[in-house]
Specification:
By secondary structure, this protein is α/β, with parallel strands linked by helices. The protein has twelve helices and 13 strands. The structure holds flavin mononucleotide.
Length: 366
């Protein structure tokens, strides 16, 4: 048992979930905490993990999923923990409070979370300020971590004008983005998932990619699309094709689900919102396989959903993911999770005779 699961987790879990989240983020902004958490891997134990993906160097394939650092206030902490990349956001162009509280629920017996935050965001300007401030703390970081920025639309913006919202956030945030993720898959903004319809999505992605090129003519900023696990296979592939036709170069699969597979946690399971964590693993893994079968190795897939262990991470890579992300497992397992995933992944690759992670991507997909 780690210090986290023995001491810290019981203290945090005794608090209301969003309060625990706020305290954690506040602690992770303190330089002393960042120093205490810092973990430098022995290069030999993670030698198989670096990759160049979409023109970006990743020291390892394990990333922080969107939603944990929505305001971009804890970037040095993610680097110190050993993440290869962190996705900030979702950011909306204009600040908005999100849904009424409570809106975050632990399903402990299921190792899961239900949330219905609804994009509480300090807005693009606020997040840009936060990130500029943390970049001054760059000396606190130990790894050259990549930063993605996940963007969404404001609640009050009708879908016909959604593209204007995405484009406004790009105008403000592009200097900070290693990549952009277009979020059309959160279940907590009414109508957002309708943007996954193929004609709508293609036009939206075209607008976004065009604006990214205008704003950043010399540095290529890849645009990825984050999709929902709640579509039929046919709709999902149509959405993905539309995203690629529009100029997206990678897919993040998946966001939280509105489905409620058999759950054991009692009252909280009835809450509305997106379900994440262990119950999402099987679905997210099969979406990954479906996408890899369709796309092959040319279009990187970022696998996310229910990854708790090195076995889960390795399974997702073998199911076609080039990179992976975690959120819910970090809440349950604590900061040591990243080290466990990285050393465990490297060990599994070595055992199976792979010299580089790239060789294992999609090997289980027929
Ligand atoms: C509390 C919470 C908030 C989230 N907020 C966002 C968000 O703002 N944008 C987004 O694209 N995904 C968001 N997600 C989804 C995660 O990025 C991820 O896709 C999902 O939780 C599945 O991964 P996991 O099982 O490792 O948590 C959120 C997830 C949780 C648990």
């Amino acid at each position: 048992m780690s210090v986290y699961t023995r001491a810290l987790r019981p203290a945090l879990f005794a608090l209301e979930a969003e309060r625990a989240h706020e305290l954690t983020i506040a602690a992770l902004q303190r330089p002393s905490v960042v120093s205490a958490l810092r973990w430098r891997p022995d290069a030999r134990t993670v030698a198989r993990l670096p990759q160049n993906v979409l023109g970006l160097d990743f020291v390892n394939p394990v990333g922080l999923a969107a939603g944990l650092d929505k305001q971009g206030t804890a970037v040095p902490a993610w680097a110190a923990l050993g993440f290869g990349f962190a996705e900030i956001g979702t950011v909306t162009p204009t600040p908005q409070p999100g849904n009424p509280k409570p809106r975050l629920f632990r399903l402990r017996a299921d190792r899961a979370i239900i949330n219905r935050f609804g994009f509480n965001s300090e807005g693009a300007d606020g997040v840009a300020r936060n990130m500029a401030a943390t970049i001054r703390l760059k000396s606190d970081t130990t790894t050259p971590m990549r930063i993605g920025i996940n963007i969404g639309k404001n609640k009050d913006t009708p879908n016909e004008r959604a593209a204007e919202d995405y484009v406004r956030s790009i105008d403000v945030l592009h200097p900070h983005a290693g990549y952009f993720a277009i979020n059309v898959s959160s279940p907590n903004t009414a109508g957002l998932r309708d943007l996954q319809e193929r004609h709508t999505l293609r036009t939206l992605v075209e607008r976004v990619v065009g604006r990214v090129r205008e704003q950043s003519p010399t540095r290529t900023i890849p645009v990825l699309v984050k999709i929902s696990p709640d579509m039929t296979d046919g709709d999902l592939l149509r959405s993905v094709d539309a995203a690629l036709e529009g100029g997206a170069v990678g897919i993040i699969a998946t966001n939280t689900t509105v489905a409620r597979p058999a759950l054991r946690s009692g009252r909280a399971t009835a809450e509305a919102g997106g379900l994440s964590g262990a119950p999402l693993k099987a679905t997210a893994n099969s979406v990954c396989q479906l996408l890899f079968r369709h796309l092959g190795k040319g279009v990187p897939i970022v696998g996310v959903g229910g990854i708790f262990s090195a076995d889960d991470a390795y399974e997702r890579i073998r199911s076609g993911a080039t990179l992976i992300q975690v959120y819910t497992s970090l809440v349950y397992e604590g900061p040591g999770l990243v080290r466990k995933l990285l050393t465990g992944l490297d060990g599994r690759l070595a055992n199976d005779g792979f010299t580089q992670i790239d060789e294992a991507i999609g090997v289980d997909v027929q």
